[in-house]
Design the sequence.
């Protein structure tokens, strides 16, 4: 049965919580807009990570009832894992570039580090290895970000971060940045909210590190050779 959650932030219901795992180092927040097939590939890329101290928080933007049930079934049949998985659904449609679902995911996040992974994107298995190691090694770093295979035809791998040259899925942020600078939420209302957020952190002189390895994948379906096999074929 769905559990309704009320707070001062986005209103959502939890449809699935595996309830496993210790306190995670990383919270992966995935936002979903009705794309069950995309989410399936995205989840498989997360499950293929070498780094295994994470929780995967999936937040759907109030999909129609049939889509909601497909999402619930997909998340519930994931292979057993020591990493916690959560599926939450917004009470009402936001349709705001993923801001409200991402904010709900942030409210649920327990990790020391946080990242955002849209339903149509994915990771290579080594994605978090160097990012987590960099943040663990240097407590003054605010975020570290990888290189990106972009849309089947381009690469994003530049420093410093700049508009149009970094995607929201590349950085791994310290969770406390959102408490210190954004009142523990995502106070944005623009299509380019991801860059505005990063730009504000840069203006606050938050330190960053770039890892050039191309381990984040934008539009995972454009890289079919990098999509892990379905569970039944694994």
Sequence:
């Amino acid at each position: 049965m769905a559990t309704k959650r009320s707070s001062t932030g986005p209103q959502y219901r939890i449809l699935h919580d595996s309830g496993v795992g210790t306190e995670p180092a990383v919270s992966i927040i995935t936002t979903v807009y009705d794309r069950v097939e995309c989410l399936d590939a995205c989840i498989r890329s997360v499950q293929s990570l070498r780094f295994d101290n994470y929780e995967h928080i999936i937040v759907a933007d109030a999909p129609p009832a049939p889509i909601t049930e497909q999402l619930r079934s997909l998340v519930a049949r994931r292979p057993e894992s020591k990493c916690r998985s959560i599926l939450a659904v917004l009470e009402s449609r936001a349709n705001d570039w993923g801001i409200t679902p991402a904010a709900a995911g942030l409210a649920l996040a327990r990790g020391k580090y946080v990242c955002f992974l849209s339903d149509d994107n994915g990771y290579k298995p080594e994605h978090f290895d160097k990012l987590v190691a960099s943040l663990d090694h240097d407590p003054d770093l605010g975020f570290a970000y990888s290189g990106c295979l972009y849309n089947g035809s381009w690469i994003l791998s530049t420093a410093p971060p700049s508009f149009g040259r970094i995607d929201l899925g590349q950085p791994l942020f310290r969770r406390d940045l959102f408490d210190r600078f954004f009142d523990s939420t995502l106070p944005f209302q623009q299509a380019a909210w991801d860059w505005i957020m990063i730009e504000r952190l840069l203006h606050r002189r938050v330190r960053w590190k770039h890892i050039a390895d191309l381990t984040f994948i934008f539009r995972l379906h454009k890289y079919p050779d990098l999509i892990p096999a379905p569970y039944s074929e694994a």
